[in-house]
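Much of the work behind modern protein science is quiet bookkeeping, done one molecule at a time. The protein below has been through that process, and both of its lines are reproduced in full.
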Amino acid sequence: MVEQNTEMKLKNILKQDKIQLWNPPYTEDNNQPGRQHMQELAERYAALLALPPPEVGGALESVRVQAVRRGKGNQTFRETSVATLELLLPRDSRKGSRAKSEVETRLDVATQQLVDRIGEDYNLKNIKLILNGKTLSVGQRLDEQGVKNHSKVMVLKLSDAEWKQQLNEEEEKRRSQEESLQRTHKGFQILSERDGSEDPDRTPFLEIADQKGNPLKIPHKEKKALILAMGFHEKGRSLMKKKQYDDALVHLLQADQHFNQCGSALLSSVDNSAVLQLDIVWCYRALEALGCLQDASSRLDRAHRVFLHCYGERSERLLLLKGNSGREEVLFLRLHLLQSLLSYVEGNDSRALELLSSVESLYSRVCLDPDQVSQLLVLGFTEREARLGLRACRGDLQGALEHIGSRRQEQQEQQQREAQRRRSRMAAVSSLSELGFSRRDASRALQQADGDANAAYTILLESSQLSNNNTQQGALSPHKVDQLLSLGFQRSSSEAALSLTGGDVQEATQLLLDNNGVVPPQLLGASSPSTSSTSSSPSTEEPAPSSSTSSSTSSSTSSAEEAELVKEVLEDLPHHEEDHLDLTLEEEAELIASLRSFLRPT
């Protein structure tokens, strides 16, 4: 990291001074360095960076060689579509003292082809290729996995046993990740379709609510995308807590895709998407995939904009909503810490140092006194309550006591309001279902009517009438009537027979033939079979005995599978709405110390 930092600083200075090392006098016609001019440049920049001239000279030569190779590689790629990749080889496979080598290849070829070629060129039997912290799949093309011209690819050598194990592990990991994604998606999809028409103790469902627990009215499509996004996010966070950052990143990126399906107005009004961006970049850091600098930087910028929009430039919206902003400061601590890390890797020491100072100031405010935490634990509070309470009150123990008590009271009242709202909704659904409507239709109508049972009843009636009219029109189509008229039946009798048989011409014909061309008066008051089976109409018809057993078995199996999926995904959901703010800051403290050791105050 130190060498990378030095080279990046030199690149920034060279760009500022408009010095092109790949051109004379720094590079001669044979691509060799112009030694005198390179030496002078090294001495000048060594004084500027307060580093030994030999160290700066070595870094400058490395930058010059990279620039010359990049120039040649760019020209080759433009002319032939053949890319130049930089290989980071195993120690015992390096030629001389060089840790880096190059290989030319097209990018539209399978990764296995490149693996075979590297193995042959460097006498390596079993290897795997790493790009930005991820293993390249041998079964996919290079360009499909983000390999580009001048990409840096790490080559890892494996023993025979490790090679076999890797193949098994890769397949198992791929299968496991895919299964996890599918099960998470299906589980939260089930929950996104539920609407609270059943007892939540027996049939769990999810509801999108604001900070005060009030349900938000969101279009069904956006609600579904938001539930899936939040579900994948929480699954990813659960894996992060277990230090399974690779698997976590897969789920977090899936969450990002679903968040992007929500409207921009919704995303900018809640902080969920901003927290997700922080979590993604935190995984990049843990996986040492800081080669994703551009993506990481854009994600942090996005998170910062959303935080400012949600909380206010000076946290005024947060203060109005919650009465304090101490708990959310841990998010800004992680944000600025990651920004400091990226600035350092990019060679911008002054910016990195400025951000690190801000981080250390924040850390001193949110880092808690262990004695105060212990006192709260003795009083029966949880560690989470102690941390959140003390941060909310800036370390004031008495204030934290009052804050925790107040939060407990708010949560209890919120739970009571939610329970009452669900009971009222279930009662309204039951009342409408007693009138002959299905519980699902009743629940949807209530949602459209904002919980007004009378308005929902009107919606259901209108829907039923419209469906009946559509069915009746289909049964009495002119073509079907004409068919019966051509057989010699009267129009009134033909229309009545078609109405009774749901538009079935053959049944209508047989009915008329059996009754001398007329419809018996006793049948004219009967309901049409098609009407009684219409999904949007009230129905009390029992299923046919012949299909009830198989249908019941299938339904029972399906319900058991759904229950298992729902139970599985619910286990990853936090039991506290501020779980994302409950950071112990242990990892943050380690990164702060590491950055401080790298950065030299000026």
The longest helix spans residues 397-434. The chain has four domains: 1-78, 81-158, 178-416, 476-526.
